[in-house]
């Protein structure tokens, strides 16, 4: 039918389309009037994806994952085991705070939970900082996007200025399985 078109062949989404996803968000005034849509991508990253955001006051906090390049523009791929010829992508957990109206980052913070791939899937504002949770220690196959093969729990409390991050990862014995946190809340000083 004319209403539905199915794309096949080379005109479908490539893996690069899912590796580098600019964040777009639309703001609304306190009265509910639609304002501008803004977009954000960190500078000098090879891959970027946001999994959660949380607004507070005049700011928007985002959580996700990035792949950073070194000073020469090289990505430090790693093998899944010593001597392996496979390449794994070194994702780091990512937290940033953006101005709600400007879209400009007040700070950006990456978190390496243990040398393999990490991500944050959820975050919340707390009085002490941004509480972010996700997974650490998973193998991200080059060209793939599954969080798998031995992932353990990852939690970080990033200070409100982004200068410090207290990180806790909990490796679990599940080499053929994965574990990760998809949500978080903080109530009366407790994490739930």
- The best one-word shape is globular
Main sheet characteristics = 4 strands, antiparallel
What is the C-alpha radius of gyration, as a whole number of Å? 18 Å
Task: Report mean pLDDT, rounded to a whole number.
Answer: 80
Query: What percent strand?
Result: over 45%
Question: Strands across the major sheet, in which order?
Answer: 3-4-5-6
Q: Topology of this structure?
A:
Blueprint: H1 15-19, E1 23-28, E2 34-40, E3 45-56, E4 59-68, E5 92-99, E6 105-111, E7 117-126, E8 129-138, E9 152-158, E10 165-170, E11 186-187, E12 190-191
Model description:
By secondary structure, this protein is mostly beta strands. It has one helix at residues 15-19, and strands at 23-28, 34-40, 45-56, 59-68, 92-99, 105-111, 117-126, 129-138, 152-158, 165-170, 186-187, 190-191. The protein has a 4-stranded antiparallel sheet with strand order 3-4-5-6. It is globular and about 60 Å long. The N and C termini lie far apart (48 Å). Residues 1-9 have low confidence and may be disordered.
Properties at a glance:
1 helix; 12 strands; disordered N terminus; mainly beta; 4-stranded antiparallel sheet; 192 residues; globular
Please outline what is shown here.
The protein is built from one helix and twelve strands. With 192 residues, it is mainly beta. The strands form four sheets. A four-stranded antiparallel sheet has the order 3-4-5-6.
